[in-house]
Amino acid sequence: MSEHGPKVHDPKKYWLDDPKNVRKVIIALFVVCAGLFVADAFYHKHPHFEAEEWFGFYAIYGFVMCVGLVLAAKLMRVFLMRDEEYYDKNE
Amino acid sequence: MSSLNPGLILVIGAVLVPLLPQTLRRWYLLALPIIGFIQVHTLADGTSVTMDMLGMTLEVLRVDGLSRVWGYIFNIAAFLSMLFAWHDKDLMQQVSAPIYAGAAIGAVFAGDLVTLFVYWELTAISSVFLIWASRTERAYKTGMRYLLIQVGSGVILLAGVLLWYAKTGSIDFGKIGIGTLAGNLIFIAFGIKCAFPLLHNWLQDAYPEATVTGTVVLSAFTTKLAVYALARGFAGTEVLIYVGATMTAFPIFYAVIENDLRRVLAYSLNNQLGFMVVGIGIGTELSLNGTASHAFSHILYKALLFMSMGAVLYRTGTCKGSELGGLYKSMPWTTGFCIVGAASISAFPLFSGFVSKSMIMTAAAADHRWFVWGVLLFASAGVFHHSGIKIPYFAFFAHDSGKRVKEAPWNMLLAMAITAFLCIFIGVYPKALYDILPFPVDYVPYTTAHVITQLQLLMFSALAFTVLMLYKIYPPELKSTNLDTDWIYRKLLPCVLGWLGKVIRKTDRMIREEALSVLGDLTAMIERQHGDGAPISKTMQAGTMALIVLSILFLFLIVTLIA
């Protein structure tokens, strides 16, 4: 390994260090999402399945599935998580 | 040159590496895959070179549309990983990496199963050194596990090939199919290397333990060679659709809670393989083209992601999400390249994944497989969630870890820059990729509907991430180990064997103790009969003795008289 980063005091302020700017990014994401959702009304779909014709199907599917994914994974931790040295103990 | 398997350029070339001085070695290592690439390019489709050995005809070189795609991308991947490893002077890796890459290329151009087997095992044996090169106790053990499984795959392949030869009288590597014992064995051998569900864990176990540069090399070849082999031997095998769909879905749950970011990438590698396997299972021209093109773009963006995490590991000494954060401040270029890799794997429009993965999705939809299609769509959203957002977010943004390091070395940056360029180039100009696919392409990735629906899917996944973060529901990065199937042979099996040993030892002791006590009883009895003063060993007077003898003789007389 080359020089491993020591923790140093960094006086420089970065754009994302300001919580206001982080807020701006989040708001931008909300606006983009809203725009994309509405965009569903303005183009011709050529679906393979009926579900694809539902308004905002991809948006809702993406959101719901991701929330489900994270919640399920969180639940998995209860059963599957061990400490970091788990395998090193008596291997 | 016209009859040389392109893989041999790297394999044989690697042998000369130790003879060269360090400065020359680097250029030489970069030159090998370039020559290999030119060799692939100059070989005409339909080229076939055979060789007689032990009464069998081996087809040591066969070129067609399918092998050509893999030939190109494997050489490109070899070149990029050599450039990424330019600064590294470790001879062990400088020799094993080109042998490994060459063996994978050799396997792709193997026309028969025996030649395939030879290269197949060579990839296993050469690649383990990239793990051992970490030179830690942990890497040594991981390498042993990896080697056992990889060589095991080869042994199963050989068994399958022998049975196949006995059954069909041919060793030609063409369509095999499942249903026979031989076919099933070959299928499993391929499946192990392709990290099928439950056979997958060698991948997540081993890749994150390899060296900074070793993981980049490893990520490109073994599993994609297996995808190639499956596409060649098992295209249209229905079960692959379900195997592949499972592969796309279940590793992403692990990816969400895994702390080691290189291991997160290993899980997402597994998930991406799933898409390719589904494409093989569907077996139409569109889906096979999808598999080939996705393998091509996947090798690039996955290498790019492993490179960026490698650079982080190289500079900070760790790759754990719980210890990183805020690195965009000191590694801005690496951050940028990582985001390009993340956008490509997530299949954002204008990035490579968008033009390749969608072919497989469309093929599944065209086949009216709504359930499989739904799983793939879920996996597409999920891959953005953990590879697209989680990797860059926890490494470069999130909570500032306070780590201030130097930007990655120039060679790493250059390797990442070229790879990132290729990811975008394929996304912007897919024709370049479509032109080298095995079947003619009749597919248009950029339609209004496709762009908008894909953006909806991705941006709302990002929204889900943001909302979960804001409400502090998202699971934090924790120092941890998550149990996966390797638990069976790393914990359960040793535990069961230990228990069995204990039982055997206990039973053995019991039997010995029982036997000893029986023997003790016996000696005590003999002691009682024959010991000092015991009835048998008592000393008697001469008169008594004479009386006894007389009695015996008398008894003898009577018996004689009666008889």
Main attributes of the structure:
heterodimer, A: 91 residues, mainly alpha, B: 2 domains, two-stranded antiparallel ribbon, 3 strands, elongated
Number of domains of chain A: 2
Say how many strands of chain A there are.
1
Name the poorly predicted regions of chain A: none
Q: Fraction of residues of chain A in helices?
A: 40-55%
Arithmetic mean pLDDT of chain B: 93
Gyration radius of chain B (Cα, Å) is: 33 Å
Please report the distance between the alpha carbons of the first and last residues of chain A: 27 Å
| Number of beta-strand segments of chain B | 3
Quick overview:
The complex is a heterodimer of chains A (91) and B (563). Chain A has 91 residues and is mostly helical.
3D architecture notes:
The complex is a heterodimer of chains A (91) and B (563). By secondary structure, chain A is mainly α. In chain A, 49% of the residues lie in helices and 2% in strands. Chain A is flat, with a radius of gyration of 22 Å. The model of chain A has no long low-confidence stretch (mean pLDDT 83). Chain B is an all-alpha fold and 563 residues long. Chain B folds into 2 domains: 1-234, no CATH class; 235-482, no CATH class. Helices cover 71% and strands 3% of the residues of chain B. The mean pLDDT of chain B is 93. Classes of the chains: A mainly alpha (91), B mainly alpha (563). Strand 1 (81-82) of chain A pairs antiparallel with strand 3 (481-482) of chain B, so a sheet runs across the interface.
Give the helices and strands, then pairings.
The complex is a heterodimer of chains A (91) and B (563).
Chain A: H1 19-39, H2 57-80, E1 81-82
Chain B: H1 6-15, H2 22-42, E1 48-53, E2 56-62, H3 65-84, H4 91-108, H5 113-132, H6 137-168, H7 181-193, H8 201-206, H9 214-233, H10 239-257, H11 261-282, H12 285-316, H13 332-345, H14 352-366, H15 370-396, H16 410-428, H17 431-434, H18 448-470, E3 481-482, H19 486-530, H20 542-562
Antiparallel strand pairs in B: 1-2
